[in-house]
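Why do we care about 3D structure at all? Because function follows from shape, and shape follows, mostly, from sequence. That is the central idea of this module. The next example makes it concrete: a single protein chain, its amino acid sequence, and then its structure expressed as tokens.
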Amino acid sequence: MFFLRLIKAESYKRGMLLSVIFNIISKGILFLLTIIIARYFGSNIKTDIYFFVFTSMLLFSGFINNIDTAVLIPESMRLRRQLGDAASMGFLNCFLLIYLAIGILFTVGMYFFGTVVFGLISKFSADDILLYHDYFWAGSLFFIFHLLTNYLNTVLTSLKYFSLPMVISSIKSCIVIACIFLLRANYDVLSVFYGGLISYAVNLFVQLYVLKKVAGWNFAIKKGIVKKAVWGNVFYAELGQLTTVISSMLPLYLLSGFSSGIISVMNYGKNIADIPNTLITAQFANVAGIKLNEQVARQDPDGMNDTFLQTAKLLVFILVPVGFFCFVFAAPIVQLFYQSNNFTAASIQESAEFLKLLALTIFSIGINALVTRIFIAMQAIKQGFVYQVILNVLLIAAIGICIKYYGAYGYAYALVIINLVNYIAMYPVCRIVAPQINYAAVLQYTVRILSINLLIAGLLYLLVHYGGWGGVWHMILSFFLYLIVLLALNKIFKLNTGLSYILTYARQKFF
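And the structure:
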């Protein structure tokens, strides 16, 4: 009980700090899983199928889970304020039951028609689909576990258990790693599937136990609590998310028609590029999102703007230098994590190219996640739907054109183009949908931070290409030099006071 009290945030600032720390541990273990897969299994048709199936199931479940933060949690918080905890629990339990039914129906359908479905949504050969049909069937089971565990994580976060989902996730990833070591000799890549399923089952059990025993959750369903307006918001949220799923599935579909291993190397590079937003942005957005929901309920526009600006500027300050560093040292970063007898020099180069391109817009993804939380808090579902559809149609067109002319790397080019377009386009959108948000201040701050980091990264780039600083040890030394220079500039010019506060708070609490 003491441990559970420790990880239950008592304030948003403490919750943000602790959740980020626990999230770093959790996602660090999860990234270790990616490293183990790369080192043990390399990049081939088997790993291509694993990443294709796993990502597909994430997208399909994410299509439904999209309404968790967009519709269900804001509505449950409104019910809690107006009608009490029982009404809020009954509302969320209703959708838990709906999710369970959807997951069971999907699982049954994939058991009978799985190979047909994957034959339609991929360009894998019919022979490969038949040969590895066990991979497709086992992987399809991820859907129901993703659906339920993601939903329960969101519920726990709304109850201000900001760190608990990260702790559970850490345990889950450790179970997968253990299963790979125990089952690899007999099941090869299939051991990753089996390990994942076992870990998700444990994860689901722990979540339900915590809700029942710690949070005092009552799993009774309250009839008539879901209003017509909620279903309308669900419809628009899902309709908008549909275009996101299509734009995300399209590159997987096209890349599955390229040479064996291309999906794997793309995922290895993308997993590294995703680390900053996975470790930092996701938790900042989760905590800020709950705070924004409450500020909207209190009708506090000034508070909303302060929350947005403080969080957005901190994200820009952290993510911009990370992106520049990954661009300059893409090859040694990939080499450091993935190099092995099973992961060749050619695979390292291909993964590094994906990482280099995707690193350019790491910061834009973070701010986009935060703006999305603004839309959700204001329940601007229809406006968000229109913008989401337009943006994803542009992304689909960009992916098709860029892959046609630039091959597999065209996917990364398309993401860079659309992410930068989106970053600028959010300015007029915020002026229309959320005029109380000063997005122009974020753009101005971004230009300032980009300029400073461009100078630092430019010097490192010259050292790498003309000074022979292309090795792993040079990369590690450059990281600390970059960090020291950036922190010194922050102290001198006060580039970000939020970071200074967090560092001071962490030092006081932990040292």
